[in-house]
Amino acid sequence: MKLALGLLAILTCSVECPAGASPCPRLSYYAELAGKATGTPTGLLEALWFAESTCNPNATNRRTGARGQGQILPGGSAARGFPDEALWDVSLNAILSAEHLKRWRRRCGSWRGAVTVYHGNGRCSARSRWADLVIENWRNGR
Predict the structure, then answer these.
(1) What are φ and ψ of residue 67, in 5° steps?
(2) From CA 116, how far away is CA 74, in angstroms rounded?
(3) Is the pTM of this model over 0.90?
(4) What are the counts of helices (DSSP H) followed by strands (DSSP E) for the chain?
(5) How much is the CA Rg of the chain, to the nearest whole Å?
(6) pLDDT tens per residue across span 9-59
(7) Residue in 113, 105, 24, 129 with CA at minimum distance from that of residue 70
(8) Which residues are CB-contacts of 17 (< 8 A; sequence separation ≥ 6)?
(9) Secondary structure (3-state) at 17
């Protein structure tokens, strides 16, 4: 179900968001700060957040409990020991999601692999249409 919703969100932006427009205009400031702090591309963060939560900092995954725009899992490696309630902070969620993505980029050797693992597939080299669409939207500036 999450995959279907994520693909729908990505495809919607592919159709409705003009090239070069931010998919997360309300979160662009946080993406820029987190991107600069971690060396993660701002546009990739926004494309990822759009796919994960449609850029909703109040989003909750009912099945896993993942929180915020970056869908940080309480108690997971991306949460880095922060209390569950702290994950609702938009700026903290931005930094944690950017750091997590950057760590996977170092391990996987590519942003595509990092996005694949970030989304929940345990292997950097796994085929993921979801990751392909996130990367495509990032590269097309959507």
Answers:
(1) -130, 150
(2) 19
(3) no
(4) 6, 0
(5) 13
(6) 444 444 444 445 678 889 999 999 999 999 999 999 999 999 999 999 999
(7) 24
(8) 23, 142
(9) coil
